[in-house]
Amino acid sequence: MANEQEMRKIVLFFFLTLLEEKAAFEAAHRAVSTLKTKGLFRNGRDESVARDAAIIAIMKRIFEQFKKTASRNPLAGQIGLMVDIPKDLDLATWRSFQKMATENESMAVALSKILGFADEAVAMGLNVSLGTVRYRIGKGIRTLGEHVKKT
Amino acid sequence: MSDNDDSTGKSIKIKFRRKLTPFLCREMLFDYATGNLDATRRVAMEEFLRTDKECQGIHEEIRKGIEYAEHLASLQVNQAVLMELRDVENAISLSRRYTSWYEWPETLRWSITAVMISMILAGAVAVVPWKNIPILRQWVDSAFKVKQLEVIEVAQLPRASDEAQIEAVQEQQEGTLPIDEGSGDEETEVVLEVLPDTDQAPVTVQLPLTMLGALALVPPSPTPNLLQASPGQLSPIPDSSFKTVAAEPTAAATETKATSRAESRASGFVSRAFMTLTNLDDIGPKIVDHIVDLGGEKAGEVELGWQRGTGRYYHFVLPEEGQERLLEKLRAYGPVRLSKDPHPRVMPAGQVRFILWIEAGNS
To answer: pTM here?
Structure first.
């Protein structure tokens, strides 16, 4: 079931960063395929930082490929096909946060605070220092809070 | 700077407590909100937050941001999507999976193993020159002799209930007991030396080879045996009192003949024909007449046109020039299926051996 948790994280990551279900599904499909190719799904119980970092690196690379083609008209008419969204959750906040924050900040927030990857794994996966990751997370969370406060 | 130093275990008093600046406080607000500050910093932050409205606002934003992120973390992915992703395969992952022998289905692995073993055995049988191995050659020769005797015995006791067996016996008999010129008398006789238990001298008996086959299979019994029943040649001898000793001249002769047979093996032919006729009872005797008219003579034990079940069996030797004429006559009655098969039996020049089977029924 560990693999299923990782697949969930992969789907949510692309859903939150690309903000388009179709592109998110295709990206997740490619990411899972790549992870299987690299054998990262074989040891399901291995939850090491290095393995998480490898997964993050693959997701980032695929995100870079898909962000150019993904529509920035987020979630229009396609909500609920991939992800079950609770009624009390307003995704417009996240969408406005995506617009205001930098790509690095939103990615760091998504990976660390939403998907639950360790900061060390995020740092290794994004190939930046731990301090940089924490700085991006802090700044991103504050930006996100500003939008939450506004709404 | 902290108020005390826990590593030394001693409390160190700080004379001048440094006050946090608004910049430093803002920078540390996220760590404060996530609980990553040590106790001293946390106390200092709390003191500062009580007085600084701006930092209070930022702290509130961070707290709300974290709450919202935790809310987003509760998003559930559709199970159908997860199922589809679970089955994702590509050429590389598939090839990786199937290159591992232990990932293959167990049935396939056992099948491949069985096929490999069969191929190795077949290759060994085909490649190894068994006939050139002296020990095996002797064994094969001895086995050939035993088989020869068994065939003779079966040929003497034809079973009318098994048509195919009769035909096979006919052919085998002819293969081992040729009827062509110059070989019949020599091969159908064997010399036996009988040793009685009494002081009588050994008795040499010359018997047809076919009788030897029957003799070999007669179990010891209180009834008079085959030798005792031969009038005028042997005095009564108890059944258990005789045994066969090595008959050197005969064994040598048999071995020589076996070699000559092996040399001539598969160099002859037999013609086989098969027909299906509706009025076989009328046509059958006519076909016998045709064969005889064309110079054909019966071969084997049974007469020409021997009736078996609903069919008739013709086994004969025919002059080669009469073969085509016979086939023409046969085709006048119905379609003939003809084949020419290799056979160890070599016919004299100008003669062909023919086996014709006619089945009663609708052609």
So the answer is: 0.45
Is the CB of residue A69 less than 8 Å away from at least one CB of chain B? Answer: no
Q: Are A121 and A53 in contact (CB under 8 A)?
A: yes
Catalogue the E-assigned strands of A19-151.
83-84
Q: Which of B68, B89, B93 sits opposite A93 (nearest CB)?
A: B68
- Taking every pair of Cα atoms in chain B, the longest distance, rounded to a whole number of angstroms, is 148
What is d(CA A84, CA B60) in angstroms, rounded to the nearest whole number? 28
Phi, psi at B342, each rounded to 5°: -65, 145
Spatial separation of the C-alpha atoms in residues B262 and B149, rounded to whole Å: 16
- CB-CB under 8 Å, A36 with B93: yes
DSSP B87: T
Q: Cα(B359)–Cα(B264) distance, rounded to whole angstroms?
A: 33
pLDDT of chain B, 363 residues: tens digit per residue: 444 444 444 455 555 556 778 888 888 888 888 888 888 888 888 888 888 888 888 889 899 999 999 989 888 888 888 888 877 766 666 666 667 777 777 888 899 999 999 999 999 989 888 777 877 777 777 776 655 555 554 444 444 444 555 555 555 555 544 444 444 444 445 455 454 444 555 555 555 555 554 454 444 444 444 444 444 444 444 444 444 444 444 444 455 454 455 444 557 888 889 998 888 888 888 899 999 998 898 888 888 888 888 888 999 998 988 888 898 988 888 888 888 888 877 888 888 888 999 988 876
CA distance A37 to chain B (A): 5
Place of tokens 């802090």: A138
Q: Which of A32, A137, A142 sits opposite B58 (nearest CB)?
A: A142
Question: What contacts B119, CB < 8 A, 6 or more positions away?
Answer: none
**SS3 of residue B341 by DSSP:** strand
Residues of B in contact with A89 (CB under 8 A): 71-72, 74-75
Q: How many CB atoms lie within 10 A of CB A135?
A: 17
CB B88 within 8 A of CB A36: yes
Inter-chain residue contact A89 with B72, CB threshold 8 Å: yes
